[in-house]
Amino acid sequence: MEIYMQKIGLIRDDINPKNTNLNLDIDWFVEYTNTDQDEINFTVVLKSSENFNLNFKVEGILKLDLFEEFNQGDVSQIIFYQACNVLMDMISITRESVHILSKNEYSNLKSEHVPDTLFNSSDVKLML
To answer: What is the per-residue pLDDT across 67-122, written as a single tens digit (0 to 9) for each?
Structure first.
């Protein structure tokens, strides 16, 4: 069996919780289409609203090997586990951080397209 995550979406609070330990009470579900075929489409949705408001959605494809049976309960647990790992990574990389680049810093990025996206400003504020 092969699992491919094709589309990932995250809507989260703008501000990170102040606590270093983030306890998420997650509601989740997995929906499947084309379950009678060797290539099954799935959508997994994770939601939390208590300590940290977020909605997370992954769309993907599950490819079964020849003669492999589809066990929805087992596959759902695997997809949920993998989606949680991706969610934790996305929370980490979308945390609020700001770095201001001077003209000298962004001119060293070696891209001819960077100046076109900066709208001729002398300083650029990147939100990461």
So the answer is: 888 889 999 999 999 999 998 888 777 765 555 555 665 555 554 444 444 443 34
Measured CA distances, 2 to 37, 61, 78, 123 (Å): 14, 8, 11, 46
Q: What is the pLDDT of residues 16-59, one digit of tens each?
A: 666 666 667 889 999 999 888 889 999 999 998 777 788 899 99
Distance CA 64, CA 70 (A): 8
The amino acid at residue 92 is S
Tokens describing residue 106: 């962004």
Tally of CA atoms within 13 A in the half-sphere of 51 that contains its CB: 11
Nearest to 21 by CA among 64, 52, 55: 52
Amino acid at 99: H
Contacts of 72 (CB under 8 A, 6+ apart): 32, 35
| Rounded Cα–Cα distance for residues 8 and 57 (Å) | 6
